[in-house]
Design goal:
Elements: H1 2-21, E1 34-42, E2 45-54, E3 57-65, H2 74-86, H3 98-114, E4 135-140, E5 143-146, H4 150-161, E6 166-169, H5 177-180, E7 186-187, H6 192-197, H7 203-213, H8 220-241, E8 245-250, E9 260-263, H9 268-281, E10 286-287, E11 291-298, E12 301-308, E13 312-317, E14 320-323, H10 332-338, H11 357-363, E15 369-370, E16 375-381, H12 393-396, E17 401-403, H13 417-425, E18 432-437, H14 438-443, H15 446-459, E19 463-466, H16 469-476, H17 480-496, E20 516-528, E21 531-532, E22 539-541, E23 547-553, H18 570-590
Helix pairs in contact: 4-9, 4-18, 7-8, 8-18, 16-17
């Protein structure tokens, strides 16, 4: 009897211990149920999440805070859906939003760490691997716009205003294209701010500047259309779309006068956000992750588009198509095809979606191209990633000097982009160093508009702040004595109002107020001037110079407007002016 009692007690103890070991978890991994905070580093800084775990499964992910760029933040929604579906963080990043994706996933991993767990302790999701049959879907519209950047939105909004039934197709998971990641300054002659400052300008002067800047390889008729309609486009963005322009102008290289409007916070986010909101308010459908693959032609006319979505294949029948797919700056193979010097060793500022798809699609039905060899690099970019640096706003306000490793200036800081880029590539290490003092730093609103970029630059030793020029020079290994002499000479030029070395066209301030700031930068591919041949009505022409009926184009997908070299801030004027023209004419053609 005693033996039986002892056996019973042992069994109860064993059962009790087993029960305790499984308390709060259904599997062997034992992740305690609950909600855990996690933090990861995205492109714009910290991404903070609350991650809920039940029975070794992630059941919810709540974004608490982030500083990711509007448009790119949609990548987190895509990732959330996949993490919940697969109960795993071993998934692919979202194309075009790599840093945001990595930050989001690392925040989840950090939450697991805070739960005293790891990603390997998550239960394997039971996924039905049976392939879902893709659906063939056919839809009809008056106008199909391919590309949801500045040109595409402008075209779609104007086509809708003209009474057309419109849809926008976008291959990326977010809208915006290159417009979103640009500074989005906008060249407009005779604008309201020029009048307030008493600056004299004219359409003819902007035409001349663009032609000279493009080495007269531009089509003068197209250039004049941009210059004549630029101000009206800027007012349309302000009054009809709701874009807020800052109350000052920028002076870009190659322009004879300060004429470039600045969007709120000096960022394309303002332009794209307002265009997107306007399109949505007009009930214009936007299909993301939907890549156009082919133009449908019947009797010599474009009558539709074939496209591939995530789950479905589409045929969009229509009366007219507006091609607004951007350039090919991120397509290394295509760059080399037309200009072997712009190879894989040169980084790019462009969206990863800038791969020339629209140019290729149009060529397949006989469209002509021009200027494809003209590929522009932007002089001041991140030497690690190729991203355009908005610290460079200080240069466009006139407050900086650019020196080499030897501490000497070597180019006009407000010169043409191509000339500056070539000059930088010729320096030691193929890089340059841009210097501004505290006065220029504040006047250029660098902390106010670009704090996230500044944090990134500091973390990666691409920006230094110091109380003396000697400290600045020593940080980057720049010749201090030569740098001091360069600054002294420059300050004398400012006093005299003339730069005898490089004829810098704007000398607003000395470099004399500590602390000082210096960045290290290098050129990167920024704009492809070549593309589809169009006429002043934005109609695409074939190799015989004839109009391809039903096909229109606007923006960087076109050629002929900027010649060999695009002047800064002329792209936004171009995409708005010709985007509107393309949309209006496509709608009229569809009637």
């Amino acid at each position: 009897m005693v033996k039986l009692f002892k056996l019973f007690i042992c069994c109860m103890l064993i059962f009790g211990l087993t029960s305790c070991s499984n308390n709060g978890a259904s599997g062997a991994n034992n992740i305690a149920n609950g909600t855990y905070e996690g933090v990861g580093k995205g492109k714009g800084g910290d991404i903070t999440l609350n991650v809920t775990i039940e029975d070794d499964h992630i059941t919810n992910i709540e974004v608490i805070s982030h500083n990711e760029t509007t448009g790119f933040d949609s990548a987190m929604d895509t990732l959330k859906d996949k993490v919940l579906k697969y109960n795993s963080i071993d998934i692919d990043t979202v194309s075009g939003a790599t840093l945001t994706s990595k930050g989001f996933l690392s925040a989840i991993e950090n939450a697991l760490t805070n739960a005293n767990a790891s990603k390997d302790m998550l239960a394997k999701a039971e996924i039905n691997d049976q392939e879902v049959e893709r659906q063939e879907i056919e839809e009809e519209y008056d106008v199909v716009v391919i590309g949801a950047g500045g040109a595409g939105f402008s075209a779609a909004i104007e086509a809708k205003n003209a009474g057309a039934n419109v849809i926008i197709l976008e291959k990326m998971p977010a809208v915006g294209g290159n417009t979103l990641i640009s500074g989005a300054e906008y060249a407009a002659p005779n604008n309201w701010l020029q009048k307030e400052e008493g600056l004299e300008d004219s359409v003819d002067l902007m035409v001349e500047d663009m032609l000279v800047g493009g080495d007269n390889k531009n089509n003068p008729e197209l250039v004049r259309v941009v210059a004549e309609n630029a101000l009206d486009g800027a007012l349309w963005l302000k009054d009809e779309v709701g874009v807020i322009w800052e109350d000052e102008l920028m002076f870009f290289g190659g322009h004879s006068v300060k004429r470039s409007l600045i969007p709120l916070n000096a960022s394309g986010v303002e332009i794209v956000t307002k265009l997107n909101e306007k399109a949505q308010s007009m009930d214009i459908p936007i299909y993301l992750n939907t890549k156009a693959t082919e133009l449908i032609v019947e009797d010599g006319k474009v009558v539709g588009v074939k496209a591939v979505g995530e789950d479905n294949d589409y045929t969009f029948k229509c009366d007219a198509v507006v091609m607004a797919t951007g350039g090919f700056g991120s397509n290394v193979e295509m760059r080399i095809q037309y200009n072997p010097e712009i190879d894989e060793t040169i980084l790019s500022t462009n969206s990863v979606g800038s791969t020339g798809d629209g140019i290729i699609m149009a060529q397949e039905i006989g469209a002509d191209v021009e200027g494809m060899e003209y590929i522009q690099t932007y002089p001041i970019c991140d030497p690690l990633t190729g991203t355009l640096l908005y610290f460079d706003d200080a240069r466009l306000y006139g407050h900086t000097i650019i020196v080499n490793k030897e501490g000497k200036r070597f180019v006009e800081e407000l010169g043409r982009r191509d000339e500056m880029s070539l000059a930088i590539k010729a320096q030691t290490g193929n890089v340059c160093y841009e210097l501004v003092d505290q006065n220029g730093f504040v006047e250029s609103k660098l902390e106010e508009n670009h704090a996230q970029e500044l944090e990134y630059l500091y973390e990666n030793d691409l920006l230094v702040k110091a109380d003396t020029l000697q400290e600045i020079a020593e940080f980057f290994g720049v010749d201090y004595e030569a740098l001091q002499e360069t600054v002294d000479n420059y300050n004398t030029y400012v006093e005299n109002g003339e730069d005898p070395e490089f004829n810098k066209r704007s000398l607003p301030s000395k470099i004399e107020t500590a602390p000082y700031y210096m960045i290290k930068a290098a050129p990167a591919v920024h704009h492809t001037m070549g593309g589809l041949v169009i006429n002043t009505d934005a109609q695409v022409l074939n190799t015989d110079g004839e109009v391809i009926e039903g096909l229109y184009a606007a923006g960087e997908v076109t050629g002929g407007i900027h010649g060999t070299n695009r002047l800064g801030s002329c792209a936004l004027a171009d995409i708005t002016v010709f985007g509107r023209i393309a949309g209006q004419n496509a709608a009229e053609y569809s009637k």
